[in-house]
Amino acid sequence: MIGKKLFSRWIAFMILFFGTISLFADGFIVIHPPVPRPRPIRIHYFPLSVKYHHVTTEIQDQVAVTKIDQVFYNPNPRQLEGTYIFPLPERATLKQFSMYMNGKEVQGELLDRDKARQIYISIVRRMQDPALLEYVGRGMFRARVFPIPARGETRIKLSYSELLPADSNLVEYVYPLNTEKFSSRPLDEVVITVNIRSKSPLKTIYSPTHQVDIVRRGAGWATVGFERKRVRPDKDFKLIFSRSNKSFALDLLSAKPSSRKDGYFLMILSPPSQMDKESVLPKDVVFVVDTSGSMMGDRMSQAKKALKYCVQALSEKDRFSIIDFSTEARSFSENLVKADQNGKKDALSYIDQMVARGGTNIHEALLKALAMEKEKQKGRPFMICFMTDGEPTVGEVIEPEGILKAVKKANTHKVRIFVLGIGDELNVKLLDKLAEENGGAQTYIGEKENMEVKISNFFNKISYPALSDISIQFSKNIRVYDVYPRKIPDLFIGGQIQLLGRYRGHGSVAVTLKGFKGEQKIEQTFEGRLVESGGLSEIAPLWANKKIAYLLDQIRLHGEKQELKNEIVRLAKKFGIVTPYTS
Question: For the chain, what are the domain ranges?
């Protein structure tokens, strides 16, 4: 057995981190302890250094492909062994991984979330370093690194694709560099290059975190660059860009492996940048706010600020109430109150008195809010605004699937539920499903994130629905199938609808959009083209991700069936996607 101190000293050679777009995705190497000697020998080793860290990202509309090229240098007089670990971003698909040592390519393996969690926790226990806890719960790519040559280099190249989120016509790309601050020495060189191409004209392009060079090469084409030497990054790289929409916009992207095979398409529907706010109907809103112990500190402060903003932004013609909940649910008023000066004043005072403590009874709070729908008046939209960190702990029903079923049963009049998730440890699956299955939308705010713009955009979604009861029809020369999501959600100001599907045929296509803006029927036809072969290859794995998510939902709702499991495994192996059934 290796002595505990010696083992901890060896395991502490955790070297580097690097990552990509959506949430956390930093790769790192954990050095393995050496073969034990007969007698403990005090040997000092220098940590690996990063010779260079190059990131190249291609963004086509909202499809991003990130390529990482990184070289590690071992300054020690002996070779080392370690494990390279890459926490996969949510909804990202690994495209390629290669590691070259002594001219040989090393293969990695994909792990499901349960295995990833076990490995992460094991590393944390050995290292006594809570920094890795932020990765627990994400999928992971793993590869054995041996040998890391003495006074030599190990090169790692990796790429993945993802569909970037958009909010209020703003598209955000995130490459987490934050964990590089744990490196024992500065990185010799960091270079990030992002090429943006958009069918719509690009408006604002900026980074709120880093000083970047921006070169505009055309109305819908720009290159963004960041380069530093001898630096230890301490924050994530974020890039935000906006596009111009004067009316409803429909972008159609496609890919086809060959002319003999069916293709894949991505359709993105966006509302106009501005809508006529004078035509908005008076509404009834019930704010449901989590005041459990898990919301203590910054989360509670953020929730109060968000709630105050929404109450103050209500029109005098609106009505509202507040339900705050912890172990049990309480009400600001058992009935809806007018959003006049007195109503708002009383509500703000009630919000100030909220204290975070107790359990999280999401089930009781949502059913209590849905019960207030009995006061709904004809012609007035009724909706629920749910603010939480999203982890139920007490109540008659605690399991997320049970809560979703109870809400579905109680929501007989199709009340819209809008979700504002607060914090970094959210039950995203539960919150996404609450919004998606109940005609709403969701927004997430990190604990240290600037919240003013996100709250404003969130409230605009509640206040100004752009299009409801949407249907989309392709011209007869194209057959589409396997389209996800199965039910097209409503479109809100600042929101977006993304559809991924398969198609048969090719060439010019007319896409007809139908829906309702309030009581007004809207119909608009867009022209597009579906490729005969080639196209944007990243669309295929994005589609597979969506289909796998749908099949997993069917298993959770109706139980495991062999044909569903077989299809998940087939798609996962074909496209390199982490699932509960693949590793």
Answer: 4-243, 247-271+470-534, 281-463, 538-583
Angle, helices 341-352/298-313, rounded to nearest 10 degrees: 180
Length of the chain: 583
Q: What is the DSSP letter of 14?
A: B
User: Quick one: pLDDT at residue 98?
Assistant: 80
* Parallel, antiparallel or unpaired: strands 520-530 and 507-517: antiparallel
Sheet holding 170-175, edge to edge: 166-167, 170-175, 237-243, 202-206
One fold for both 4-243 and 281-463?
A: no
What are the C-alpha distances in Å from 133 to residues 92, 124, 180, 296, 553?
Answer: 20, 7, 15, 19, 27
Both tokens assigned to 338: 């007018």
d(CA 436, CA 440): 6
Is the CATH number of domain 247-271+470-534 2.30.29? no
pLDDT at 362: 96
Contacts of 188 (CB under 8 A, 6+ apart): 49, 50, 51, 52, 229, 230
Max avg pLDDT among 68-82, 202-216, 500-514? 500-514
Which whole number is the average pLDDT over 130-149? 60
- DSSP labels for 348-359? HHHHHT----S-
User: Which residues are CB-neighbours of 460 under 8 A, at least 6 positions away?
Assistant: 168, 492, 493, 494
293 DSSP assignment: G
Closest CA to 64 of 241, 309, 289: 241
Count the Cβ atoms, other than its own, within 10 Å of residue 374.
Answer: 9
Question: Helical H runs in 353-506?
Answer: 362-371, 400-410, 428-437, 452-463
Q: What is the structure's pLDDT at 104?
A: 72
CATH code of the domain made up of 4-243: 2.60.40.3680
Q: Is the pLDDT of residue 19 over 60?
A: no
DSSP state of 538: T
Q: Over 90: is that where the pLDDT of 474 sits?
A: yes
pLDDT in tens, 386-401: 999 878 999 999 999 9
Contact 271/245 with Cβ under 8 angstroms? yes
Looking at per-residue pLDDT, the higher value among 13 and 514 belongs to 514
Kindly indicate whether the domain formed by 281-463 is annotated with CATH number 3.40.50.410.
yes
C-alpha dist (Å) from residue 233 to 50, 179, 503: 12, 8, 44
Tell me the two tokens of residue 411. 């929501």
Q: Which residues of 556-566 are buried (b: 16+ CB within 10 A; e: fewer)?
A: eeeeeeeebbe
Q: DSSP characters for 84-141?
A: EEEEPPTT-EEEEEEEEETTEEPP-EEE-HHHHHHHHHHHHHHHT-GGGGGGTTS-EE
Those residues whose C-beta lies under 8 Å from the C-beta of residue 527, and which sit 6 or more positions away, are 508, 509, 510, 511
Cβ-contact 361, 328 below 8 angstroms: yes
Q: Residue 507's closest CA among 477, 539, 468?
A: 477
pLDDT tens per residue, range 532-559:
999 888 899 999 999 998 999 888 778 8
Which pLDDT does position 575 carry in this prediction?
87
More confident residue, 337 or 389: 337
